[in-house]
Amino acid sequence: MPPITQALIVVNVAAFFLDQFMGRMLTQWFALWPLGSGLFVPWQVLSYAFLHGGLTHLAFNMFGVWMFGRELESVWGPRRFATFYFASVLGAAGLQLLINGMLGSNAPVIGASGGLFGLMLGFAMVFPSARITPLIPPIPMPAWLFVLLYGALELFLGVTGTQSGVAHFAHLGGLLGGWLTIRYWRGLLPFGSRWK
Predict the structure, then answer these.
(1) DSSP for residue 182
(2) What kind of architecture, by CATH, is found in domain 3-185?
């Protein structure tokens, strides 16, 4: 397994068990709290991505980081991969803070899902024809279609408020952060003038 992908998984697993041992004290300090909550501090825009609410949450996110991260890190190398992952995490935090501010929500956000959604988008852009079989529906499809459908579902769930307790806009922010990073690397709009 490539080093950054491996490190992300190890740190997330360690943080989860340490947080459990400490009675969720890490979540109190390092979750992403809304700007108006009185609990927000700047480091939370990164630290929230290393915390998880339960073993299932952790397992699904780490499976995704392993599945998409090892492929991307093998192509991009550790430095570019880490830059991309954390740009996705920051994009997820930024959009979630914006939406929370608009809605007046005081709920914190935790989880690597924003970074994972960025990795999914990166995988679809680098390997658009790769076949992915989701759990539901178990139908093989090209990576680009999988990410397009998953993004559309997240937008629908976020706008309608369905499946409350899930930070759908953080997921969308992860997609946006990943997309903007690749546009920047390719010198494309809004960062450059080249069309492809």
Answers:
(1) H
(2) Up-down Bundle (1.20)
Angle, helices 143-160/168-185, rounded to nearest 10 degrees: 140
Q: 38-53 pLDDT, tens per residue? A: 899 999 999 999 999 9
Q: Are residues 27 and 51 in contact, defined by beta-carbon separation less than 8 angstroms?
A: yes
- Give 89-104 pLDDT, tens digit per residue: 999 999 999 998 888 8
Q: By C-alpha distance, which of 101, 93, 80 is closest to 171? A: 93
- Predicted structure pTM score: 0.92
Give the number of other Cβ atoms within 10 Å of residue 37's Cβ: 13
Measured distance CA(137)–CA(186) in Å, rounded: 34
Contact 117, 77 (CB under 8 A): no
Q: How many CB atoms lie within 10 A of CB 190?
A: 8
Q: What is the pLDDT of residue 196?
A: 46
